[in-house]
């Protein structure tokens, strides 16, 4: 029995070393960002992160401990073979998480959780976000490192699990193993405290990258899988009545309303622009060269200059835009059909008023559970990549925007009015490979992104210019709005307002206020109330405000994976829930802004749980 216990101790040290290597691997992949913080802070990620390493190791040990208990009673080499197979499998799965996380962090700005696993139902579309070179690198890294750690195990530990015979004193040995197995709950929970360990436990610095480096990503994925659908509100900051009162104070409306349309029943066309951010839009103070068509069209319509995405992904943008429903941290309501079916929908409202409704997307609608969401929204027609000729599949995602917009144009040559159409572009999504000679020279990610946005801007601009020649243009409102933005540099913090600020432009023959700029701060959630009020149509969107109403408050609430931001005309507060503190604030009255943001999130999540 002594031999078995020593073997388990060495096995534990093996996994501790593995997780230390995993953190080192993350640092090496992100060496440029890590180098900015120096040796002392980076070494601190190991000393602070060891608590999660111990917890992750304890989880890994649970099954081997039970197998050791069984080996007390059942002799044979099965124990050795089981330990080898189990170890190789866990190494492979863990390294897939470690390597995948290191790559995804560059795009998402937070450590991997259960979210990417939701996309494995559509692996082809998930892989379309990544270049072929990076996919090859990922598989090579996983294979090479798996073999390396597997051989280390074979060399140092494999023989130690060989069983020559039955253990003497099997009853005491069994009791000892049961006690040891049960005691794993202590490192799993992170100690004897009332509250179990969580990712925020290892945060120790004001910089998010440093804190993220301390997180054990294998533990993080496992934890989020088991807690991916909370049944109680984790954001209980206030008494329920106070949270409702504070939120209601934010959502009040009244006073006069700016009328910007020339009729009450225009055709409506949403063009949702993949990854367009304000940093690339000239009239919003961004790069004046990347979106010349959007810049030009901004002079012909109504530009919302202080407008923000509700979340950081398309699956969070769509409910915000079409259902007036804010994004939530860590979860996405679009993944839960039962909940999305309960949401109010712009589509169903316009359907009741006799509008011809349709949804257009050049990619796979099964990706990220879009299909159930689009169907539940009430579209009478749904057009996806399946409606295109396979010869036109010139993008990893499906068809590029020039093919897509041409098909949309052809369908609208004789469209039945009134119509409500939603078109979602895709070419400016990673990996930014577009069928166009580069306008901006360079092979770095940012230059590729700029070229892809330029391409989509050109395609949409051509479509709008054509639409102006049609008979339906004079009675049409076109809403150009981005789904989200992206991190364009490792220096961009995942929660920065610059990453969430996006363009929204209303143009078309139905617009009566060319060149108007709306400076009131708002988000995608507010589109529903703002639009319906212009048309004198009632709608039930409890979290939306009319941005053209004099009496509505000027603020933006958006969420990132670990918290929320609350921005007003006088203050800015960003709260990290895992850290349990404000990570960025400025302006006057930040304390009250924090309370408002917490109340809004608390009420939102109560609503989410109730659906």
Annotate the secondary structure layout.
Blueprint: H1 2-29, H2 31-35, H3 38-71, H4 78-108, H5 123-127, H6 132-156, H7 170-183, H8 185-189, H9 208-214, H10 217-226, H11 240-250, E1 267-273, H12 292-297, E2 302-304, E3 307-308, H13 314-323, H14 337-340, H15 346-352, E4 356-361, H16 370-377, E5 381-383, H17 401-411, E6 419-424, H18 445-467, E7 476-482, H19 497-500, E8 504-507, E9 516-518, E10 522-523, H20 527-534, E11 555-560, E12 563-568, E13 571-576, E14 581-587, H21 590-610
Parallel strand pairs: 1-6, 1-7, 2-9, 3-10, 4-5, 4-6
Antiparallel strand pairs: 2-8, 7-8, 11-12, 12-13, 13-14
Helix pairs in contact: 1-3, 1-4, 3-4, 3-7, 3-9, 4-6, 11-21, 17-18
Brief summary:
The chain is of the alpha/beta class. The chain has helices spanning 2-29, 31-35, 38-71, 78-108, 123-127, 132-156, 170-183, 185-189, 208-214, 217-226, 240-250, 292-297, 314-323, 337-340, 346-352, 370-377, 401-411, 445-467, 497-500, 527-534, 590-610, and strands at 267-273, 302-304, 307-308, 356-361, 381-383, 419-424, 476-482, 504-507, 516-518, 522-523, 555-560, 563-568, 571-576, 581-587.
């Amino acid at each position: 029995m002594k031999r078995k216990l020593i073997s388990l101790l060495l096995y534990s040290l093996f996994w501790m070393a593995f997780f230390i290597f995993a953190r080192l691997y993350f640092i090496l992949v992100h060496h440029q960002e890590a180098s900015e913080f120096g040796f002392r802070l980076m070494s601190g990620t190991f000393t602070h992160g060891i608590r999660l390493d111990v917890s992750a190791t304890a989880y890994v040990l649970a099954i081997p401990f039970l197998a050791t208990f069984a080996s007390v009673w059942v002799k044979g080499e099965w124990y050795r073979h089981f330990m080898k197979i189990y170890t190789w499998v866990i190494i492979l799965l863990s390294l897939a998480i470690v390597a995948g996380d290191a790559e995804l962090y560059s795009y998402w700005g937070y450590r991997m959780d259960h979210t990417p696993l939701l996309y494995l139902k559509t692996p082809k579309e998930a892989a379309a976000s990544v270049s072929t070179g990076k996919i090859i690198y990922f598989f090579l890294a996983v294979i090479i490192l798996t073999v390396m750690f597997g051989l280390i195990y074979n060399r140092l530990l494999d023989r130690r699990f060989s069983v020559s015979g039955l253990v003497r004193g099997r009853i005491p040995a069994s009791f000892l193993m049961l006690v040891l197995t049960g005691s794993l709950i202590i490192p799993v929970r992170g100690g004897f405290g009332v509250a179990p360990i969580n990712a925020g436990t290892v945060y120790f610095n004001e910089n998010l990258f440093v804190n993220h480096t301390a997180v054990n990503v294998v533990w993080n994925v496992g934890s989020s899988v088991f807690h991916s659908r909370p049944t109680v509100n984790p954001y209980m900051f206030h008494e329920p009545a106070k949270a409702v009162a504070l939120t209601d104070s934010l959502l009040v409306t009244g006073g006069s309303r700016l009328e910007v349309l020339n009729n009450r029943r225009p055709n409506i066309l949403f063009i949702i622009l993949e990854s367009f951010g304000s940093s690339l839009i000239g009239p919003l103070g961004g790069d004046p060269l990347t979106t010349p068509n959007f810049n030009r069209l901004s002079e012909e319509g109504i530009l919302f200059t202080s407008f923000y995405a509700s979340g950081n992904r398309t699956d969070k943008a769509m409910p915000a835009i079409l259902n007036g429903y804010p994004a939530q941290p860590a979860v996405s309501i679009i993944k839960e059909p039962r909940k999305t079916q309960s949401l109010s929908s712009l589509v169903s409202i316009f359907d009741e008023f006799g509008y011809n409704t349709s949804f257009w997307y050049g990619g796979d609608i099964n990706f990220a559970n879009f299909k159930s969401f689009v169907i539940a929204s009430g579209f009478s027609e749904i057009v996806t990549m399946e409606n295109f000729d396979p010869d036109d599949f010139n993008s990893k995602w499906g068809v590029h925007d020039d093919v897509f917009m041409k098909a949309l144009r052809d369908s609208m040559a004789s469209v039945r009015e009134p119509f409500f159409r939603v078109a979602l572009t895709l070419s400016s999504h990673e990996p930014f490979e577009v069928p166009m000679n580069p306008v901006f020279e360079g092979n770095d990610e940012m230059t590729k992104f700029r070229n892809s946005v330029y391409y989509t801007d050109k395609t949409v601009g051509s479509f709008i210019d054509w639409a102006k020649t049609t008979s339906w243009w004079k009675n049409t409102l076109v809403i150009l709005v981005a789904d989200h933005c992206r991190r364009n540099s490792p220096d961009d913090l995942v929660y920065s307002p610059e990453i969430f600020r996006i363009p929204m432009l209303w143009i078309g023959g139905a617009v009566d206020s060319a060149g108007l700029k709306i400076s009131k701060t708002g988000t995608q959630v507010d589109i529903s109330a703002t639009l319906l009020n212009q048309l004198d149509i009632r709608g039930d969107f409890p979290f939306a405000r009319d941005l053209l109403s004099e009496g509505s408050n000027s603020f933006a609430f958006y969420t990132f994976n670990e918290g929320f931001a609350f921005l007003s005309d006088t203050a800015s507060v960003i709260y990290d829930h895992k850290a349990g503190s404000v990570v960025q604030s400025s302006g006057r009255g930040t304390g009250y802004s924090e309370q408002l943001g917490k109340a809004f999130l608390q009420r939102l999540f109560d609503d989410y749980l109730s659906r």
